[in-house]
Design brief:
Order of helices and strands: HEEHEHHEHEHEHEHEH
Distance between the termini: 58 Å
CATH architecture: Alpha-Beta Barrel
Oligomer: single chain
CATH topology: TIM Barrel
Radius of gyration: 22 Å
Shape: globular
Largest sheet: 5 strands, parallel
CATH superfamily: Glycoside hydrolase/deacetylase
Number of helices: 9
Number of domains: 1
Length: about 280
């Protein structure tokens, strides 16, 4: 039987655990799909800029919409080519055009959270970030009937600590990118296409914006050229599920046959390497 002097400590631990559980938003679990358990080395990546993959699959992503005129045009293009994409939407725009987001979800596209008003998360308090995310979550859920599970921070600006608590407390995976055509600078459809074609690799997460006319104009020829190169289009969540461990590099040997120092190490997976903060996103 435990000594009476230990009872206050035990009660404090129980109360603390209840408080943590109470802070978890409705419809969310603190550790989605069991993530967050085990040692740091056992935890899967929670942020992705690309995915190591053995198949020629890529994820096309479109930020900052929905646009009342341009997003429906893009949805028409995607439907004609049977392509699925991921849309990282702004909460304010979702509230204004929920029917467009509902259409995108209904046609098999993935809807991700891109904040309510596109602020720089790295410059906000935790409470302000939480409000940005949860308010947008509510708007997306109202439009689609489904909670989003992917978050793209505006500008790609987010701290390591924010990634961890957003994942652990709100259940989001953080999605960045490895291909950026800088279409927000309006370089012209041909330039947008060429930049995407030049940088895209199997496992790439391609960033674009469905609020710029030049981007929409670039997409038909971009899709055609990517398909001609053998790429297949999937949503971000599908891409992550297809991830495979990177293969070990062959161990170089000296002329005597001895393995050189440092040889045989496994290169880090691209999925764990975040893209740098950018005016894009």
């Amino acid at each position: 039987m435990p000594s009476a002097r230990f009872l206050p400590v035990c009660l404090a631990i129980v109360v603390s655990g209840l408080n943590i559980e109470a802070q978890t938003p409705p419809g969310r679990q603190a550790n989605a799909n069991g993530r967050g358990n085990g040692t740091a080395s056992e935890q899967p990546a929670i942020a992705f800029s690309a995915v190591h993959i053995d198949e020629p699959c890529i994820a096309m992503t479109f930020d900052d919409g929905p646009s009342a005129t341009l997003t429906p045009r893009l949805l028409d293009l995607l439907a004609a080519r049977h392509i699925k994409a991921t849309f990282f939407v702004i909460g304010e725009n979702v509230a204004e055009h929920p029917e467009i987001v509902a259409r995108a979800a209904r046609e098999g596209h993935e809807i991700g959270n891109h904040s309510w008003s596109h602020p720089n998360f790295a410059k906000l308090s935790d409470d302000a970030v939480r409000r940005q995310i949860l308010r947008t979550d509510e708007a997306i859920t109202a439009a689609t009937g489904k909670h989003p599970t992917l978050l793209r921070p505006p500008y790609g600006a987010i701290t390591a600590r924010q990634k961890r608590w957003i994942h652990d407390q709100l259940g989001y995976q953080i999605i960045l990118w490895d291909v950026d055509p800088y279409d927000w600078k309006n370089p012209g459809p041909a330039t947008v296409r060429e930049r995407i074609l030049r940088e895209t690799r199997p496992g790439s997460i391609v960033l674009s914006h469905d609020i710029h006319a030049g981007t929409i104009e670039a997409m038909p020829s971009t899709f055609n050229a990517l398909e001609a190169k053998g790429f297949k289009f999937v949503t971000v969540s599908e891409l992550i599920r297809m991830a495979t461990p990177p293969k070990a590099r062959p161990a170089p040997a000296s002329q005597s046959g001895a393995v050189l120092p440092g040889a045989g190490s496994i290169s880090p997976a691209p999925s764990a390497t975040p893209a740098p903060a950018s005016p894009s996103g």
